[in-house]
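Lay summary. Proteins are chains of building blocks that fold into shapes, and those shapes determine what they do. In this project we predict the shape from the chain. Here is one chain we studied, written as its sequence of building blocks.
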Amino acid sequence: MAVSDQHTMAPLKAMIFAAGLGSRLKPWTDHHPKALAVVNGKSLLQRNVEYLQGFGITELIVNVHHFASQIIAAIADNNGWGSSITISDETDEVLETGGGLKKAGWYFKDPADFVVMNVDILTDLDLGAMISRHRQKAPLATLAVSERQTSRYFLFDNDERLSGWRNVKTGEEKIARDAGNFIQKAFSGIHIIDHSIFRKMDRAGKFSMVDVYLDLAKDNVIRSFDHTGARLIDVGKPESLELAAQFFK
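And here is the predicted shape, written in a compact code that computers can read:
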């Protein structure tokens, strides 16, 4: 992995979302958490812990729900694969991405940016370049996106500012701000977020970060980081595990 100049910056903390049920990854997830699905001898969780290490990030929190004890044991047995890993326990109720981040907000008490990513995303995008862009532009959040086919898209204006959301299968749209021209990009499940977001999140309980961003996009700048051309695999189905094994050794 090519590592850019991010090591000149103060290291960030990160959160990996690993609480999901992984229903698309059955039959594996009938008996195991999605986070421990294996690609070439390494679990998805281990691969993303090591991915973050490649950009100097060694302090992170992982939320758990489905077969939580298996994830906790894997982290303990492997000494966090060299990182300091804290658990955010959602055993009682899975809180989705927004609720999960809000519950873990105590971990990000320092007034600094932090990285969030889904455990089932494998990528070689240059996170250091994304962090640099975020720090240069200083938005509330920077969202990794690319030009690829999916059913749901974020909508951005010509200045890469989040303006809405669209489901192209159902035709549903949620417009947060009038942009005149909407450019649709597929979200890659990787965010860099300013700490101030915790003061702005009005929702409680179980909710999605997508809804948080749409709530806040009118009055706050949320930008895209387009990494089209980098590898990215959403390892949500058994066949995507096979594909991931071809690209991530």
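What the prediction tells us: The chain is about 25% helix and 25% strand.
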